Each structure stands twice: as structure tokens, then as C-alpha cells.
Amino acid sequence: MLPTKDREPDATAMGFVVNDLTASFGSHVAVEGLSMGIEPNRVTALIGPSGCGKSTFLRCLNGMHLNVSGATVRGQVLLDNQDVYAAPMDLVGLRQRVGMVFQRPNPFPTMSIYDNVVAGVTLGHLRRARRDRRAFDDLVEQSLTAAGLWREVKDRLPKPGASLSGGQQQRLCIARTLAIEPEVILMDEPCSALDPISTLAIEDTIGQLKKRFTIVIVTHNMQQASRVSDTTAFMTIREAGQPGRLIEVGPTKDIFQGPKEQATDDYISGRVG
User: Fold this and answer.
1) What is the DSSP string of 128-154?
2) Are the beta carbons of 102 and 174 closer than 8 angstroms?
3) What pTM value is reported for the model?
């Protein structure tokens, strides 16, 4: 089950070590030579111009990059000191450990709020939960509470997930991810389709979740990166069609107030888009 609200940061939460990662789509190299660490119980923001490979890199962390025909990955992605791409590769197990929240809310429209939360739970868990309905109910409540949504929907659980507002739908998707009890949560532009109030709610949720999980977020919003992240990684491309590369990574305060690389400063200041 999920930890209680007042639990100290989870010392067992996992981070990543990425060594010389190159990700390609057929002959097109999207990301090349990327090496960095992702600390546990921290929010790491990936920033950079469109086309620099941020989302590709994010999807490499849970194997989703390989969903595209012809996609390849070279290098190491270590989770708990184990290379997730080493044979035999366990994609199902990896995606249980590394959950994903997408750019646009994607609740299952014909499912209730309740059923949306448990949709990602494995069949084995479902069978056990059906034998113990209270445990199943507790999982729904804990997941929605952790996602900052329980108070708003606790009396509407049989209603369709699609009946919620956009911001609520995104938090429902976060709850669905939490229900599988991952160690890491990946977020790909989770607020890009939301209004400012909903965005603030998601950011507040992220701030609470990092006490329990490792979070990696892709965002084009510099203010959001500076607000929610502990570490920021800047990626860019030299010119269109070239591979994305990691230019600089460090504490968010240092990246935004005193970047070491001119390219980072140019992007953050808006001189280069």
C-alpha cells in the first residue's frame, strides 16, 4: 500500500544512472551520448527546445521508446544498479516500477473514476483485491489522496472518469499510476493542456509525491521547472536533424541563476528558443 501522508522520504526509492545513452528511430539518432544520474526522492526537470529528445529520453527510462517500430537504444540505463535493457528484458516489470503520466489526460472514458484508478493494477492484484474488497477500496482512496483528488471525487466514484475537468482528469491519471505502486514516476509535459489553477494543483501534487517517489518531468515551462524541480537538465540540438545532447545538469537553483554553459544561459534567458 502507499505510505501515509506524514511518512519521511522513502530511503528505498530508486534513482537512475544513465551511461552513454543513444536512442534512435531507424537511421535517425534522436539522442546521443547522454550520461547523467537521477537522484531518488527528487524531481528532475528536463528542459530544452522542441526536437532535442527530451521525451525520447524520458521514454527510454521505462522502455516505451521501443514501442516504435525500428527504435533502438544503446548504452546503459541502470535502475537499482541493474541495466533495464540487459537481456532478457522485462518490459512489464520495468513499467510496473517506472510509471508514466502523459501530456494530455487519458482516463478511460467508459470507466468509472474508481475503475480508472485500478485499471493499471495487474490481474493478479485484481483477483486478490476482489477477495478483499476493503483492500481494494483502500488502494483507491490512498491513490486518489496522494494525487490530491480524493476530497473532490470521494462522493462521485461511480461517475465516468471523463466527467471530470481536465485538471482532475490529469490527477486521476496520476492516481492510476500510483495504484501500481511504482518507484519512479515519469511525467511528459503533464500541465501543457491545463489552465493555471489546474497546473498549480498538479505542481502541489508533485511536491508531495517526491517525498515518496523519484520523479522526472519534461517541461517547456521554465517557471514550472524552477518551481517544482530539485535538479534541472538542459538538452539541445546544434541544428535541425542533429541528435539531441545533454549540455548541463545540476541543482535547479544553480542552473537558473548561474549556468556554467553559455548555451544554457541563452535558452533560459530566452535569447535562443
Assistant:
1) HHHH-HHHHHHHHHHHHHHTT-HHHHT
2) no
3) 0.88
